[in-house]
Amino acid sequence: MAASATNTSRELGAVFGVAVLGALVNAHLSGDLTTRLQRLHIPSNFISIVINAIENGTVPGGVTGGSSIEDRVIEAAYGAFRSGLEIALITSGILMLVAAMIAAATLNPHRQETRERDF
């Protein structure tokens, strides 16, 4: 019974962890990319095309690449993704440290010996 509860909680943690961190990356990517593209003075209708292309993984027809502005847009997209990924990794690292501190506080070997003597 305990093993199945452990496995279930582990699987739920993995699923929710990936989903939450993926949503965090995606939200930061959209917001940060919009800001970066506005700094490049890209018109708002093109910003929505770029954001849509990034979110769907498609490039609209007519984009050939190689021009200076296209290179800056691609660099902005990579920078926004990198920034979102860094935030997700820092967040997961902090959560792992918090979990480790909780585990260390609750799984104290001295405390376990005291419990065994009480029975």
Layout of strands and helices, then pairs:
Blueprint: H1 2-39, H2 44-56, H3 68-106, H4 109-118
Helix pairs in contact: 1-2, 1-3
Radius of gyration: 23 Å
Number of strands: 0
- Write down the secondary-structure element order: HHHH
Shape: elongated
Helix-and-strand structural type = mainly alpha
Q: Strand content of the residues, in percent? A: under 5%
* Poorly predicted spans: none
Main pleated-sheet profile? none
Portion of residues in helices? over 70%
Distance between the termini: 23 Å
Number of domains: 1
Instruction: Let me know the average pLDDT.
Output: 81
Number of helices: 4
Describe this protein's structure:
This protein is mostly helical and 119 residues long. The chain has helices at residues 2-39, 44-56, 68-106, 109-118. α1 packs antiparallel against α2 and α1 packs antiparallel against α3. The model has no long low-confidence stretch (mean pLDDT 81).
Structure keywords:
single chain, 119 residues, mainly alpha, 4 helices, 84% helix
Q: What is the gist of this entry?
A:
The chain is an all-alpha fold and 119 residues long.
